[in-house]
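User: What would this chain look like folded?
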Amino acid sequence: MAKGTGLEVVRTPASIAELTQYAAQDGVVFAGALGGGYVFPEFMPAYDAVASLCNLLELLAPTTKPVSELVGELPVSTLVHRQLACPWAMKGLVMRVLSERLRDQNLDLTDGIKVFEKRGWAQVLPDPDEPVVHIYAEGKTEEDSRALEAELHALVEEIMQTEQTTSTSSTG
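Assistant: Here's the prediction, encoded as structure tokens.
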């Protein structure tokens, strides 16, 4: 969506602290989180629902189209998100083994492990508060997204099962 605007998109780790730290830097005009938190640093480098509403109203003011029509013109999202239970004690191991297995792929390690390929991308992100990992995938089509998520999901499950089998056989 930012193509042709002259703006640069900077990706940050998925935490409020990281997002707001980046938002406070010179030249940043907007920061947004996956879950819907928005930052307008010119006003305040933190989430602010009222500032978000005011900016939305300002953007809508010149148009006569209903909001439903404008939303209908937006690109259709193919993002898939799924949570997978992962014991606290296994999160680090899962991420380490996953990064080793995917090391020859095009990876972004800014936040979790994100792998890019021709169909799209998929990401494993350990939850900081719950014993789960989040698996996100976005492909060119919804089928690609679901396939990418399923492949990464299967790989994470395989790593957890292999480790559980290894630790059970070494203690027995």
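The helical segments are 16-23, 49-60, 67-72, 88-101, 142-171. If you want, I can go into more detail on any region.
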